[in-house]
Structures are given as structure tokens and as C-alpha cells.
Prior knowledge:
The complex is a heterodimer of chains A (252) and B (555).
Chain A: H1 3-30, H2 48-71, H3 74-79, H4 84-115, H5 117-121, H6 125-150, H7 161-169, H8 183-198, E1 222-223, H9 246-251
Chain B: E1 3-12, H1 21-30, E2 43-47, H2 59-62, E3 66-68, E4 74-76, H3 81-86, H4 97-100, E5 104-106, H5 109-113, E6 125-127, H6 149-152, H7 157-161, H8 164-169, E7 176-180, H9 189-193, E8 199-202, E9 208-210, H10 220-224, E10 230-233, E11 238-241, H11 246-250, H12 256-259, E12 266-274, H13 278-282, H14 290-297, E13 298-299, H15 304-312, H16 317-325, H17 327-333, E14 338-339, E15 350-353, H18 357-365, H19 373-382, H20 384-394, H21 399-422, H22 428-432, H23 437-449, H24 452-455, H25 470-474, H26 500-514
Parallel strand pairs in B: 1-15
Antiparallel strand pairs in B: 1-12, 2-7, 3-4, 5-6, 8-9, 10-11, 12-13, 14-15
Helix pairs in contact in B: 18-19, 19-21, 20-21, 21-23
Amino acid sequence: MNTLPIILWVAIPYASIAVFIVGHMWRYRYDKFGWTTRSSQTYENRLLRWGSPMFHLGILMVLAGHVVGLLIPREWLYAIGISEETYHFGATTLGTLAAALTLTGFAILIYRRRTVGPVFLATTTMDKVMYVFLGATMLFGTLATIVFQVFGSGFQYRETISPWIRSILGFQPQPELMADVPLLFQLHVLTAFALFALWPFTRLVHVFSAPVGYLFRPYIVYRSRDDGRGAQAPQRGWEAIKTPDPDRLHKL
Amino acid sequence: MKVMAQMSMIMNLDKCIGCHTCSVTCKQAWTNRTGVEYVWFNNVETRPGVGYPRGYEDQEKWGGGWVRTKRGRLKLRSGGRLAKLARIFSNPTLPEIQDYYEPWTYDYDMLLNAPKGQQVPVARPKSLLTGKNMKISWSANWDDNLGGSLETMQDDPILKKMSEEVKAEFEKAFMFYLPRICEHCLNPSCVASCPSGAMYKRAEDGIVLVDQDQCRGWRMCVSGCPYKKVYFNHRTGKAEKCTMCYPRIEVGLPTVCSETCVGRLRYLGLVFYDADRVAEAAAVEDDKALLQAQRDIILDPHDPEVIEAARREGIPDDWIEGAQRSPIWKLMQYEVALPLHPEYRTMPMVWYIPPLSPVVDVVTGSGNDGEDARTLFAAIDKLRIPIAYLAELFTAGDIGPVDAALRRLAAMRSYMRGISIDNERDERIPNAVGMTGTQMEEMYRLLAIAKYEERYVIPSAHNEQAHELEEMACSLDFDGGPGMGGAGPFGSSSGPAVPVAVENFHILADRQTADRPSTPGRVNLMNWDGNGSADGLFPPTAGPVRKTGKRKDPS
């Protein structure tokens, strides 16, 4: 087999996944203080009020769509009565709707970021790099959908891309599945993996802080001065006092 | 009964001269950093006035605090958990920075370094958000001393609630100052609004804090607080708030605002309260009953049952003694102190002694004796408008408690004049307001003499665990370590927390060289701390010169 497919459809995905996982662990340990949404709503709200909910709700729909389309084998869907036609219709309409929402929201937010002075000044280099890859991924994904699913005869990604991604996640990579996938889909996949590799080093980490726990905790939180230490380990030489081991005392 | 201790504050508004020393020293201590330029943990408002941020008391607009549902339960005014999460992508009630004010600096450097020209150089105001020239049109105390208030007064949410007659009457000005810090509420709606669970109330002393490592910048606390005393640091993307100077409180020192108050009007001390009854007290039906409900859950620290219960909760004996000597407990007993906006149902714990001075001013202004009890009582009866205004602030509109507090203050005034000028104790005066002469003298001592050690009764924290002092041991580990020297790779202030000692060293070094908008390489003398010789401070010499620190010997 050629080297290129192996690099593109085995090496890059695994490297990216590895960076994604290790990067998040490292970032969480190194930079808890920097782990935030870095919201810019206090600077400007008129555009954000529209752009942000559109983008975020859209991207959540996109995420759900990808889970169904990529991770769930189609046989399972057949089993619960979702035929190929039903799936295709649902995926294409909902997917197009989600893409429209996401891209419009994204466009509003990027316009805002560039034109509103304080927001632009608060934009880091890492933000800009991330927007390029995020934008590219969304663009290629949307183009692929429009070209092949909406106007084309429909590309059967559930026979190629989906089993391939499951083969990657199952540690039995089958790069040959990606060989005949149209270029737009290939680009979508590659920019997505580049984005995953960047992810832990950008503000996107806030995705993993989605405050689901809020639904289940009591309203008022009490803490004691002593347990505010969190994950911070005691500094060397300052561990809490323990009862001495009697055996060792005896030896002294 | 579950006894909990609360560090609380009372401010005697009669003594506030509106000098803003508390605000300035607080700002220097806590918010003199990028990202919180617009933030005043302590601010002093002129009332009537719109306050800071503009019109923050209008909860119809800002949605802060709690409301009582028809079923008698408490719910956050801007919506419960699901509503909060649904609005997380764009918080509809979040104040924008313009609602506070756009922070600015001046191009001072231009005064020294402008090229020769026809005009005298001026230091133009520069926005700290955009760096561009700006027109200053609002600030944290723009309507200070009622300045320009004819333009803005109609926006005072309290005046809006009152009748037309009142607004007209305003022309016969009454005015007082209202210093505000975080209320460190017993039922804090900011804590309840935080999706990340990063905000908490300290179990030991009730101080409400934000865990900076856990805050994810969802900014629900900012809108959840009806007093708008949680702020969003727009650089770090995290919430910050008044900490009640907990590092000082822990070692028995008063807060910076209290310590530096020239009017000596702030009191600090512990109160015990029954944590089991907070929710019930905050949910009483009538807004006007909230003050009494809050008074009822404050426990008498002399009551043997309370002492016993406090010991069971592990409250140390010196704290119990501190609660007994607490000026807060005493002033609450005299019923001269009132909470700010109890109708927000957060059970605020910074209380105020309403100002008698507007009344006295009117009496003396009309040529009468401003220290005569009967004249003052009559004036309190007659001056419905200032008193109704105070009632809207402190008792949800109930005139009674304000009236009673002012009467006691007036009685104290004339009773003490009798003692010191006429050398007579007219016991009828204290009796008329339901007090004894002895009580009145004690209250006078606390309010007028206001000795330092009587104003601040702060038992220090119990800090037996040695590892609490860890920061002292590890500061050298950080020399050259990650996070040194300002911004990390993920934007400003990313990276792990830097120990205070190290941070200060670098802040000092940076400060001497950072603020120089128009002439790189020059030092801003305003920021020079007198140590070291920063680049450009002295004419060049032959030998190499380090940026800060001592000059190296060339040999």
C-alpha cells in the first residue's frame, strides 16, 4: 500500500487524537486559570446576541448529526426502522439547516470580531489560527453536503467514512476505505483532524466545561477554607501533618 | 438550629463625607490591573442618583436576585437552572461595559515629549479598551455630589418608584452618600447563578468568593447579583468580586476600605445566624416583612443555647467571644442598622445606619435647634420624602423601621447634648424611643467615639495547618518557571497561579517600563518605585545596565 494513504488516514488521525487527549490533560494541569470561554459579551452585545446562539445551537446540531452519521452503524438504524431514504432525507434537511445556522452565526461572529475594536484587540493569535481551521472544516463540510447530498445523487459516506472512523476508534484502521471518497469530504476530514490537534491549545477547551452539573447541584455552595485547595497538590515539604509511624519512631 | 458565623459590615451613613478614600484604596489594592479597569469593588454613590452601574437597582431590567413564586418558593428572577443554561450563549441581562463606563487613561507622556509646536501639548484621554482617543462621558461616580443630576436624576430607579410629587420636591435637594461593597449575602443569588459551581460562600465566615481556577466565564453571576457587585474581568474572562479583604480578615485586620475610611464609619464583626432558617426567612410573603425575618434569624451570641449549638458546629471559643463583642450585633440590637434592598431576598449582610443629616440640615436651615429632640421628632414626621426614599433603599418601602432608627439617632443627639452642655440627663428622651439612658450612652460611644478596637472586632482565622502557608515556601520554585512575566500562550494571565511574592516582583519591574504610549525607552516617573535604575532614567553610561536592579560594575 502507498505511504500517503497511511499517513493521511492512519498517522494523522492518530497523532491528532493523541495530541487532543494529552493536550487537554496538560492544559488542564498547567492552565486551569486560562480555561475559560473568554466571553467578549461585555464589549458588545448587539451582534453577539444573534451570532452566538445561532453558531452554538447550530454546531450542537452538527455534532449530533455527526454522532448519528458516523458512530452509529446503519444496520442499527435499519433495525429501528430508519431506512436509507428516511435517513438521507433527514440528514440532508437537518444537516443543511444546521449548516446554515452555524455558518451564519460564524459569519456574524467573525464580522463582529474584526470590526468591534475591543473584541478585535482581545483576539489572540491562537484564536485567529483556530478560526481558520474551524471555518475551513465547516466550509468543506457544508460544500460536500451541498454538492453531493443536496444537488448530487448522494454520496454513501455510511459505507466509507463512517466505517473508517469506527475502524480508527477501534484501533483496527482501514485506510483503504477512504481511498475513493470525494475530495471535499477528504478535505473536511483532514481540516477537522487539524482542528482537533489545535483544540486543547485554544479557547475551544470551554466545550469540556459545559456546566451540566449545574442542573443537579444545590443552589448555594459552601466551601471550607481548608478544602479550597482543589486539585493543587501540597507543595513539597508542606504536606499535611500525619501521625508518625510507631515502628519508625521505635527505630529512632 | 445550625449556627453559622458571618463576617459582616455596618456603615454609618451620617458620617460619610463622600471622599472616595475607600474606593481609591480598594482599587489600588485589588483592581489596579488590566481587565478590571472599570471595576470598583467598593464604590460610593451619591443618592438620589443612578448608581454604578447605571440604574442597577432596576431589577425588571437586570433580573438580579430572587423572587417568591406563588407557591411560596424562591426562584432566581432571571430564571432557574434550565433557563440559565438556555441563555448561556448570550446572556440577555448582562450589563455591557458601557453600563459601567468605558475605562480610560491619559496620554500623560505627551506633556513631556511632544515635539516643539504652536500649541501647548495636552494629555488626551485614551480608551483602555481600544487605545483610541475618546470622549469621556460617564464614569463610576459621574453624578457625584448631584453633579449633572438634572440630566440623569430621572433614571434613579428609586425615584421612579416614588410619586410625581417626590420628583418635584427633589429640587429642595436632599443628598447623602452610599458606599457599597459586596453584600456577602446569606442567600447569595450570584452563587446560585454560577453554572460552574465556582462561586461559594465560605463556611467559616460567610465571605462569598470566586474560585478563579474553576470559573469558566459563563457570566451568569454578574447578572444574577442584584447589587451588580460581581464583575467580569474582560482580559482573563473570569468573574471577580469584593473579597472582603479575606487575607486581612484572616489575620484579624479590617478590610482596606474600613481601615482607610477617614470618617471611621465602618464597623466589622461577626454575627451568628441560623443557617437552617435562611431559605424560610428569604421566602416570607410580604417584602416589608423581610427585614424582620432577617433580624429573626440572627442569633443572640450570649444565649447559652446558641453558644452550645455554635460549639457543636465547631466554632472556636474566641470566635464566640468575638461574636459577643461584635459591633454588628450591638448595632443590630439597637435597631439603628438596616440592610440594603432586603426585597431582593438575598439576605444581604452589609447594613447601613440611615443618615439623619438631611433631617438635621432642614431643621437648622429653617433656623430651629437641630439638636432638640422634639424639633427633630417633628421634622422626622414631616420630612416624608427623604424618609420614603430611605425606606425604598433599606426596608422595601416600609417607613416604620427607618423612622424608628432616625428617632433613636435624633434622641441620642439631644440626650448627649443634654449631658455634655447642660449637664442633665433627661431620661424621657431615651424612653421616648424605647431605650434606657445607659443603652443610649453605649450606642453613643460606639457611633460617635468609635474607637478602632470597638469598630473592628475580628477574631483571626484558625490557621493551624502548616501547609496553609505553602506559598511562603515555594516562591523560589517559580523563578523562571512557567507563568513568569505576564501573558502565557493562551492570552493574558494564562498558566498556573504565580505566588504573590513572585508576582509582585515582576509587577514592580514591569510597571516601571510598561506605561509609555508615545516614547519607547522612556520611563514613566509616576510608576517608578524608587528602586533600581530603569532604562532611560539616567543618561547612558559606559558600563552595561540591567533593566532593573543595581548597575553592574564594568570592571
